[in-house]
Amino acid sequence: MSGSESDSGWYDETLYPDVAQRLRMGRVLHRDRTGLQDLVIFENPVLGRVMALDGVIQTTEGDEFVYHEMLTHVPILAHGRVRRVLIVGGGDGGMLRRCLEHKAVERVTMVEIDRSVVDLSMAHLPAISAGAFDDPRSDLVIADGCAFVRETTERFDVIIVDSTDPHGPGAVLFTEDFYADCKARLTPGGVLVTQNGVPFLQPGELKDSHRRLGRRFGDAGFFVAPVPSYYGGFMAFGWATDDAALRRQTAEAIRPRFAAAGLVTRYYTPDIHVASFALPAFMLDALK
Ligand code: SAM
Asked: Nearest C-alpha to atom 20 of ligand 1 is from which residue?
């Protein structure tokens, strides 16, 4: 079992060797190994219900809005004409839910490798997906996302990689071959965005993705947001497209799209959208 439930009723993350966060474990709603991963869902007095996979916090009811709003609204509102979205991973359904809030989006295909994550999230974390799996525009595929993008002939305007970290089943989703296949599945002017770790503690992941994305896309960069339960400061989101103008749009250009979409958000705003691409010096230095 990854992650450790200390005898004092705390959940200790095991992502890093020398620092760790711990969350008090109230009621444990599920703890078992799926066919692929150690999965635990428990209650915490501050964050609400929490899901962890292989010792790493994946999502919490309390702060999921930051991560899911940014990884959907930024690419969809920047692109402006999104009709087809692919989500790779995203088992908890929070990303699916936010994509479907865009009424102009006609179809969201979600490729999740572990059926148990979906089933247990629907059972114990229903507030996160909020019925998204029942939306007729949803298309859930249980498969390896890497194999899916290699084999599908479908095309997408936005691809969102909402994966675990680059170990276990998630490792293949950080390779250049996977990014190349994603590129081939994007429509002209399409955007790939990725969960790309916490740069202060995972600088190697940032550099690797920047190099790999840069070899396949005309414009590869990052945007950031602080996700409280992703310990270590800013979370980085990979950004890759051949249309370099997409990440340089002004808040004035985004604002009418945001208003027209009628989104109700708790983190995302058009100003936050624009500001999220302004990276701190230590990240810029790491990307030189
Ligand atoms: N927000 C989280 C984060 O930033 O780490 C990610 C949450 S979501 C639960 C991660 C999902 O990626 C999991 O459900 C996991 O099963 C899925 N996953 C991992 N490797 C995958 C693969 N190769 N293909 C499809 N889904 C995968």
From this structure: 170
Overall domain count for the chain: 2
pLDDT value at residue 6: 55
> In this model, does residue 3 exceed pLDDT 70?
no
Residue 149 has a pLDDT of 98
Structural domain ending residue among the three candidates 39, 60, 81: 60
Per DSSP bridges, beta strands 56-60 and 84-89 are unpaired
**156 burial via Cβ count (<10 Å: 0-12, 13-18, 19+):** buried
Q: Which domain range does residue 170 map to?
A: 64-287
Cβ–ligand 1 contact at 92 (below 6 Å): yes
Which of 224, 239, 242 shows the shortest CA–CA distance to 281?
224
Task: Judge if pTM exceeds 0.70.
Answer: yes
Distance 64 CA to ligand 1 centre (A): 14
213 residue type, one letter: L
Looking at residue 1, what is its pLDDT? 46
32: domain CATH number is: 2.30.140.10
- 225, 269 Cβ separation under 8 angstroms: no
Q: What is the DSSP string of 92-120?
A: TSHHHHHHHTSTT--EEEEEES-HHHHHH
